[in-house]
Specification:
By secondary structure, the chain is of the alpha/beta class. The chain is built from 3 helices and 8 strands. It folds into 2 domains: 55 residues, 2,3-Dihydroxybiphenyl 1,2-Dioxygenase, domain 1, CATH 3.10.180.10; 50 residues, 2-Layer Sandwich (Signal recognition particle alu RNA binding heterodimer, srp9/1), CATH 3.30.720. Strand 7 and strand 8 form a beta hairpin. InterPro entries: Glyas_Bleomycin-R_OHBP_Dase, YycE-like_C, YycE-like_N.
Length: 134
């Protein structure tokens, strides 16, 4: 089966604190909790999947006592949302209240948006540009 524009994408990341991460991504960004599970057997992780109903992608955060890999984000670990305009003040306030920290992502992204670090240090860019693959 070929990869198409409808192929579902999962972005999985470890989290030190799933409650704090969920607060940022659900209450701050506005994503829905699509699925949640607690580790039921040895070797399993607690997890929460966040996204938008019907979208071909979701963000999966894993954590809990069995987590063996700590989050190790770098300045280049960016999840960019192309808003096609300035970020709404209400969204910025929600992100800050939900545990997001405004950070610099370098001259390019600072010019074209606002960057937040989530509670695990992964970066979210609210880009003022529209997406174009041209």
């Amino acid at each position: 089966m070929p990869i198409t524009a409808d192929t579902h994408v999962r972005l999985a990341r470890p989290s030190r604190d799933l409650t704090a991460a969920e607060r940022f991504w659900a209450h701050g960004v506005g994503l829905d909790v699509l699925f949640r599970a607690e580790a039921g057997r040895p070797g399993e992780h607690d997890l929460v999947m966040l996204g938008l109903p019907g979208a071909a992608w979701h963000l999966e955060l894993v954590g809990g006592a069995a987590l063996t890999v700590a989050p190790r984000p770098t300045e280049e670990d960016l999840l960019v949302l192309y808003l096609d305009g300035p970020a709404d003040d209400e969204l910025v306030t929600r992100l800050e209240r939900a545990g997001g920290t405004r950070v610099s992502a370098g001259p390019y992204w600072d010019r074209w948006g606002i960057t937040f670090a989530d509670p695990d240090g992964y970066r979210l860019v609210l880009c003022t540009r529209a997406w174009s693959n041209e």
